Amino acid sequence: MDWETLYKQRTTSAEEALKHISNGSRVVSGHAAGEPSYLLTVMSEHKEWYQDVEICHMVSLGKNEYCQKGMEGHFRHNALFVGANTKQAVSEGRGDYTPCFFYEVPRLFETEIPVDVALIMVTPPDQHGKVSLGVSVDYTRAAAKNAKIVIAQVNDQMPYTYGDSQMDVSEIDYFVEHSAPLPELKPAVLGDVEKAIGANCASLIHDGDTLQLGIGAIPDAVLLSLKGKKDLGIHSEMFSDGVVELVEAGVITNKKKELLPGKMVANFLMGSKRLYDFVDHNESVAMYPADFTNDPVVIAKNDHIVCINSSVQINLMGQACSESIGLKQISGTGGQVDFIRGASMAKNGIAILAMPSTAAKGKISKIVPLLDEGAAVTTSRNDIDYVVTEYGIAHLKGKTLRDRAKALIKIAHPDFRADLIQTFEERFHCPYEA
Ligand code: COA
């Protein structure tokens, strides 16, 4: 059968498609700006159709109606990354968190976390009967590949991307046409602290390096400090508007990359409409699944990779918690460790954890003697490499516990250094000499 006839036959209403989800099944939904929010909203509106349906995903930018109060018994959320709209459900017991590395998630959907139904968002089909997963290839492609049923929201506002982001119409069971703008992120507000951190990170970045950057104020501040560099490249889990600006300024050319030269590599994209327009049918953007982009062995093929991520709290040994406040899960491991390990395996790679020295408007030091009780160790002391705050750079790899503590105290906020020095002197039985 030709793809056009197949597409027509399989196109239906959300209600009809979603009736195929059975009680007790696991539904995996697409990631971040690629979340098929319309399908999830329609499911939630018809909660009485469902009993014990697990809804599993990583970053969500939607309303997450299915994990609000009143949905118990109908839906249960399984977070592989906790977001702003899901953290309350997880902390109040209406959802669960499953620890994982991002690079492993596609494989988990083949093995330990089998998928009954994948809810995805795609572009309308092109002239060859291929749809694109657009801004979310990450684990979404693997979820769709391994699911018993695939339901796609066809959104004509989803950018068409290349790389490994296309699926054949025949791989999807139900198409639900629904046009909606992709969620947009507001630009981060950059204060003096973020700008100082950005400048410190930029001092570790050289012409020709390949970058991995996360999202938020610190990555944006780093990008802002890179305007004088040349021939930078991108091999990242995701990227946002700051990268577009540097491409347009001629700073990011991807020319010097060892792996996929000329291409900006990512597994998902999140930003403003400017970003979504930039990546649409853009041959220089290559979207791949997370088991490729985030595989430390693949990352290590970029000889000069610089990875910049952030953290909640780091203790004086260099153990970093980047995903919880004590026992309260506020985000996830995501790709942090994937990239830190990839960078350490690369020829000249470096991995930076960059963060303000304090939280809670200066009341809490993020550099601490011990992690809070219950805090998850995201990046272990064996993996940690550079830590950057607005006060400077601490290079921890290969250093003794004593030298690590000294280096971290130097970049802690001055208001907290006396307490840290006291811990240092008690722990190491020697005076602290700056
Ligand atoms: N003690 C208490 N609270 C703290 C804290 C600390 N040491 N550090 C941060 N917080 C609070 C902040 O005050 C903020 O609270 P609010 O939401 O009530 O305002 C919250 O935790 C988030 O902190 P913030 O600094 O605003 O977060 P961010 O947006 O810069 O993100 C991480 C920082 C660490 C949460 C984020 O980088 C992350 O999730 N990392 C893990 C995943 C990762 O690295 N992935 C790879 C890159 S895509």
Describe this structure in words.
By secondary structure, this protein is an alpha/beta fold. It contains 15 helices and 27 strands. Strands 4-3-2-1-5-7-10 form a seven-stranded parallel beta sheet, sandwiched between helices. A six-stranded mixed beta sheet has the order 12-11-17-22-26-27, with helices on both faces. A three-stranded parallel beta sheet has the order 8-16-14, with no helix packed on it. Strand 3 (75-79), helix 4 and strand 4 form a beta-alpha-beta unit. The termini are far apart. 53% of the residues are buried. The structure holds coenzyme A.
Entry keywords:
seven-stranded parallel beta sheet, single chain, alpha/beta, 434 residues, six-stranded mixed beta sheet, binds coenzyme A, globular
How much helix, percentage-wise, in residues?
25-40%
Q: From the alpha-carbon coordinates, what is the Rg to the nearest angstrom?
A: 22 Å
Mean pLDDT: 97
The N- to C-terminal Cα distance equals 75 Å
Q: How many strand units?
A: 27
Give a concise summary.
By secondary structure, the protein is α/β, with parallel strands linked by helices. It is built from 15 helices and 27 strands.
Tell me the layout of helices and strands.
Layout: H1 3-10, H2 14-18, E1 26-29, H3 37-45, E2 53-57, E3 75-79, H4 87-91, E4 95-97, H5 105-108, E5 117-122, E6 130-132, H6 140-146, E7 149-154, E8 162-163, E9 166-168, E10 174-177, H7 192-202, E11 210-213, H8 217-224, E12 233-234, E13 238-239, H9 241-248, E14 264-266, E15 268-269, H10 273-279, E16 285-287, H11 290-293, H12 296-299, E17 305-309, E18 313-315, E19 320-321, E20 324-325, E21 328-329, H13 336-345, E22 350-354, E23 358-359, E24 364-365, E25 367-368, E26 386-389, E27 392-395, H14 401-410, H15 414-428
Parallel strand pairs: 1-2, 1-5, 2-3, 3-4, 5-7, 7-10, 8-16, 11-12, 11-17, 13-15, 14-16, 17-22, 18-25, 22-26
Antiparallel strand pairs: 6-9, 18-19, 20-21, 23-24, 26-27
Helix pairs in contact: 7-8, 14-15
Bound molecules: coenzyme A.
Residues 214-216, 237-238, 309-313, 322-323, 325, 330-331, 334-336, 359-360, 364, 366 line the site of coenzyme A (COA).
